[in-house]
Amino acid sequence: MNYFNYFTEVEDHFVRRRGKHLFVSPLDWSLIATWRDSGVPLHIAMRGIDIAMDSFFSKPNRRRMVNSLFYCHESVMEEFARHLESHVGEDAGPEASADKSGTRDDEGPDKDTVTKFFAARISEIKSLRAKLLGQQNTTALETVERVSARLDEIAKDLAETAHMDLESLDRDLGILDEVLTTELRTAVTPDQMRGWEEEAKKELKIYRKRLPKETYQKILENFLRGKIHRLFDLGELSLFHL
Average pLDDT, stretch 95-115? Predict the structure, then answer.
């Protein structure tokens, strides 16, 4: 299983278990990002989905379909808790390390795919830089230029190396993405940000009581981050989106 297809693997598995095609919502993708950021291994997320959907289909008088991945959240987190408990005290050998990170040397995208990913993100950020040149937000422009320069450096190192450390690459990308979106957030109008927050809170209303406060806030932040990326025509800086 390719852990770097985390989002699409989870989405595809959920849609398959649901039985009818469904476009997964931006909030559902934010939930997937929350699972990923919490360290939930891909096979554990899929197992939790299976348990939730098995429970749903076992109900004799069901009238509605499951229309959101949030239906599976509790089962996924319960399975993750069992997974963590079962690994308490284990040595961090090669198998344990692979299970914890969800990656092995023979998994993940190949070099050509990663190179094309970098080229696309660099192109998007340079297009954004060109747009910012005519505006007065010099701080945002400086941040975009720093991120662009760092991506150029990483891409150059990638071209010169024979072995890719995907975990390190994705960690570096995550830091750059956080820097970039934090700065671009200041360029979003307050009315636009409030509108996004109201949209998310409305969709999350029926789930809020069942979500821990920290999880709820993380899902909301991931949703807003996605909105910022789309507003500025930027793909997320993460190999998980390959």
Answer: 59
C-beta of residue 125 within 8 angstroms of C-beta of residue 234: yes
The per-residue pLDDT for range 201-234, each reduced to its tens digit, is: 998 888 888 888 888 999 999 999 999 999 999 9
Q: Which own/partner pairs from 179-182 qualify as long-range (CB within 8 Å, at least 24 positions apart)?
A: 179/143, 179/146, 179/147, 180/125, 180/143, 180/144, 180/147, 180/234, 180/237, 181/225, 181/228, 181/229
Measured distance CA(14)–CA(146) in Å, rounded: 38
**Angstrom distance (rounded) from CA 102 to CA 221:** 24
78 vs 88, which has greater pLDDT?
78
Percent of the chain with pLDDT over 70: 88
Where are the domains positioned within the chain? 3-101, 111-241
Pull the structure tokens for residue 43: 């096979």
